[in-house]
Amino acid sequence: MGPYLQQVKTELILLIWEQLRKHCDSFSLLSFAEDLRLWRDTLVETTDAACHEAMQWVTQLCAQGSTSILQALQKAFSFHNVEGLYLLTDGKPDTSCSLILSEVRRLTEKSNVKMHTISLNGSGRAAADFLRNLATLTGGRYHCPVDEDTLLKIHGLLTKGFVDERDPLLPLFEGDDLRKLAQEITKARSFLWKAQSFSHKIVTHWEALHQALPGTPCLVPSAW
To answer: Which residues form the VWFA domain (predicted)?
Structure first.
C-alpha cells in the first residue's frame, strides 16, 4: 500500500468528518499488516473529540509486511452491535481466500453485517474476484477506483447529458457502483434513441401528409 498510503490517509480523514461524523452513531478503525492495530477495541460514539482522535491515529498509519485480512475481519466482527464494515486493501490476503470466505460466512450466520470492499489498486484478477465475492457474500458492494479521465467522462454525462447514444463510450467497470451507473446510462441512451427515432417518424409523417394535402396544417413537434 506504500505508494497509495498518503492518499488513503487523506481520504480516510475526509471520510471521518464528512460521513462518519454526520451519519454514524458509533465507529472504530483498525489496520492490518504484519500485526493488527486497533484505534479502539470497541465501537466509540461519533463525537467531535472522537473524530479528532481518530484523525490523529490515521496520520500515524504505516504500511508494510503481509495482508492479514482474516485476523482483522475476526476482530471487526467481534465489535458489539456492529452493522457494517468497510475493508480497504491493495492486494491478495496472505491467507487462503476460500478460508476467509468460509469464516465470513460463518460469522454472518450470527449477525447481519454488510461488508463493503475497496480495492486500492489494480491488484490482479484473483484479488479483485476475492473482494467482490466477499462483498457479495454479505450483501455489500465492491468498489474499484478508476482513472481520472474516466471520472471526467462520467461527470460530463451526469452534468451535461449526451446527444448521441454512443458517445462517450464507457469502459466495463469492475466496481459495483460504477457498473450499476453504466447500466443506467446505457438504458438512458436506449430510451433517448427510441425517442429520437419516434420523433423523426412523426416529423416525416406530417411532412408527407402536408405535401399530399397542401391545405393540411403541419404540426411538427419540437426537435429533441
So the answer is: 10-144
Which among 69, 48, 84 has a CA at the least distance from the CA of 1? 69
Q: Comparing 189 with 135, which gets the higher pLDDT?
A: 135
Question: Which one, of 37, 29, 33, lies nearest residue 12 by Cα?
Answer: 29
The helix (H) or strand (E) run that includes residue 31 is strand 30-32
Q: Which runs of consecutive H residues, i.e. helices, occur in 79-175?
A: 97-108, 125-137, 148-160
Q: How far is CA 125 from the centre of its chain?
A: 18
Q: Answer whether residue 75 shows pLDDT above 80.
A: yes
Buried b (16+ CB within 10 A) or exposed e, 52-62: eebeebbeebe
Q: Quick check: 57 and 85 in contact, CB under 8 A? A: no
Domain count, the chain: 2
- Report yes or no on 218 lying in a domain: no
Report the CATH number that the domain containing residue 126 is assigned in CATH.
3.40.50.410
Task: Please indicate, yes or no, whether residues 83 and 155 belong to a single structural domain of this protein.
Answer: no
pTM attached to this predicted model: 0.72
CA 55 to chain centre: 23
Percent of the chain predicted with pLDDT > 70: 82
